[in-house]
What does this fold into?
Amino acid sequence: MSELEDMFYQLQLFSEDKLGFEACDCSFIYFHKALFAPLVRHSFHSSSHSAFSRIQLIFSALSDPSNTILPTSTYLKTLYNKSIYVDRYRSYLIENVMLKEVVYPLVESIESVLRHRIHTRNILEMPMPNPKQQAINHFVKFLDLPPINLCGMMFSIKTAVERLLEKSLYNSSTVGLKDSNTHSEMMALAKSYGLNLIDSNLPAGTADQGMDLMLIANDLEGEYANLHFIYHLYRDF
It folds into this structure.
């Protein structure tokens, strides 16, 4: 018990030591934004088992400027919104680093695997994928990460992937309603990766209601030629 108390006492001293905070502060990285994307990309594609926890540490280090440099700027005294620099920096981290280097590759990989598995089930000529050889098994582990603190805001990788997958499948369904059943199967299959997607409930097809104005607009030149021919035909008679 004395060893445990001594350990807690040392941790308390270290947590109250300003030198410890200064030694671990990574605010200087704010001036090297060109390194953000390659750093996260390398960690994301790394096959190391520590890559998942490393992502959290990297974004924790990238968030340090929001605690030191940005809130203490002398220009903030003249601004109404005191958190404008932090908000802009957070938006930069989310849009240019988190989404581009982590979320978008995850969505692309998961959607490709889901489509492949559904098509191999419906098309007998397609070879079955080998689960052990799919890179998705490595990427999906990022979905199990807890929300990451980005400059004071909690960002969930899993939630972002779910919303983007829903949007992608919905847009595909609206373009080709005949594929709605396939997309519904993909949503059901996504549960095997721990994703809870909301079905768009779009119809599986359209009823023929006569002339389609969109088809006429796409072939407007041909329709005009037909009307011109009919006009001269009636005029001659």
Remarks:
- Strands lie at 148-150, 153-155.
- The chain is about 60% helix and 5% strand.
